[in-house]
Amino acid sequence: SGEEETLALLGSQGAIYTLNTTSLDIAEVKKLTIDIVDISFFDKNIFAVGSSGVYSGAFLLNDITQKTVLNDLPNDFISLDIYLGNIYLLSPRENQIYKLTPTGSGYAVTPWLKEDYDLSTAVDIAVSFNIFILRKDGALEEYLVGVKQSFSLLGEEKPSKPVAIYTTSNIDNIYILDGERNAVFVYGKDGSFKLKLEIKSIEDLLDLYVQSDEQKVFVITATKIYSVDTNF
Known about the structure:
CATH topology of the largest domain: Neuraminidase
Mean pLDDT: 90
Number of strands: 22
Order of helices and strands: EEEEEEEEEEEEEEEEEEEEEE
Shape: globular
CATH superfamily of the largest domain: TolB, C-terminal domain
Low-confidence stretches: none
CATH architecture of the largest domain: 6 Propeller
Largest sheet: 8 strands, mixed
Helix content: under 10%
Radius of gyration: 17 Å
Structural class: mainly beta
């Protein structure tokens, strides 16, 4: 059945939900009256970032509150990920990844990339000590301490319309959600192809989450959540 875990979901009109990946129970945690771009879940805390600021708090206590940001947030970022309490924001328009580091009262914002890169076709990021950037054409790039590394996906079949990527430092593989083929492509962190998981959905695929034991993948649409066994 896999390890019991909690997934944070962003609903309509600023509503934040949690999903228990074992019981599949969904509960509304908070409704924020702001435009939230993306959310993530780390160490039993929910992190939500929008154009007006950063919000975080322990979901069990329902105490998600706005945090102080010492520098300006990018106003056009499209996705975020969390690593060791730091928040990373992807801004294709500014060709930058911004790192939000916790301070005593909130977060300090600094550019993370050390060189100039064209990120105009980036669609998502995932942090696993290093950072992976997913491109519209299905390419995947790896960056370490702000510098691009030599990396490419292997195998004959690749995502044609990627919409999201998932990996963490605690799992072995990289998962890419393909909105055109309705599938999840699974790769090792060396770029080697592992398998493709078919998703039987007639809706647009939006995001994905992988259990820490990598036995199940959860694929999210606007109205449904699909659970797929990896059979690893």
